[in-house]
């Protein structure tokens, strides 16, 4: 079972690559989905977040107020570090459980872990391949403004809260250039899939 880490900065087109690989038959495990699951109402992780950052981080329905928490930690490296220390271990344990389940279901599967914070949290795990969705910060900033409705200052803050593009490129086995057209991103992703299937059969 090839285990592929797919990462990239915010608005880098990583989700587009993941969706295309899923169309080809990859088992895509979404780290953001796992984060939401481990922070579900009543979870130990959510209780620790409330204890660390205040009860106001919990909405009346018991769910995490993601917007409030995001506003609290983005741009504050110390606060973000405290949040990550709570969330990352739980996410790692759950992702490992899902990798094992995918392998049990199909030993020949290509498993892709779609993980934004690979450099920050999981770079030393035993990946068979690390794929980085790569687009300049200026391109990603424009996408955050035009496609997600953030104001420019908030977009810059979100980008600045992550590791640099240079650091992600350093750990990449494969770079997918997502700065140009959607068609070009999909073409590169199709080529990546062919490589993965060829190597899996070798």
What would your notes on this structure say?
By secondary structure, this protein is an alpha/beta fold. It has 10 helices and 5 strands, in the order βαβααααβαβαααβα. Strands 2-3-1-4-5 form a 5-stranded parallel beta sheet, sandwiched between helices. Helix 1 (14-24) packs across helix 10 and helix 7 packs across helix 8.
Give a nutshell description of this structure.
By secondary structure, the chain is an alpha/beta fold. The protein has 10 helices and 5 strands.
Give me some keywords for this one:
single chain, alpha/beta, 5 strands, 10 helices, five-stranded parallel sheet
- The residue-averaged pLDDT reads 93
Question: What overall form do the CA principal axes indicate?
Answer: globular
How many strands appear in the DSSP assignment? 5
Which strand order does the major sheet show?
2-3-1-4-5
Instruction: Please report which band the strand proportion falls in: under 5%, 5-15%, 15-25%, 25-35%, 35-45% or over 45%.
Output: 5-15%
- Secondary structure category: alpha/beta
Rounded to the nearest angstrom, the distance between the terminal CA atoms is 12 Å
Order of helices and strands, N to C?
EHEHHHHEHEHHHEH
Give helix % range. 55-70%
Question: DSSP helix count?
Answer: 10
């Amino acid at each position: 079972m090839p285990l592929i880490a797919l990462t990239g900065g915010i608005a880098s087109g990583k989700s587009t690559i993941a969706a295309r690989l899923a169309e080809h038959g990859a088992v895509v495990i979404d780290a953001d989905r796992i984060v939401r699951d481990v922070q579900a109402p009543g979870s130990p992780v959510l209780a620790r977040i409330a204890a660390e950052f205040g009860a106001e981080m919990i909405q009346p329905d018991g769910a995490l107020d993601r917007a409030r928490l995001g506003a609290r930690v983005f741009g504050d490296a110390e606060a973000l570090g405290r949040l990550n220390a709570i969330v990352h271990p739980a996410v790692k344990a759950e992702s490992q459980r899902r990798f094992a389940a995918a392998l049990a279901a199909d030993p020949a599967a290509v498993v892709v872990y779609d993980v934004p914070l690979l450099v920050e949290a999981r770079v030393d795990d035993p990946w068979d391949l690390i794929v980085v969705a790569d687009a300049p910060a200026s391109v990603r900033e424009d996408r955050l403004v035009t496609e997600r409705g953030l104001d420019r200052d908030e977009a810059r803050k979100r980008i600045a809260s992550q590791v640099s593009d240079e650091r992600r490129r350093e750990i990449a086995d494969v770079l997918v250039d997502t700065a140009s057209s959607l068609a070009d991103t999909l073409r590169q992703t199709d080529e990546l899939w062919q490589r993965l299937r060829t190597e899996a059969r070798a």
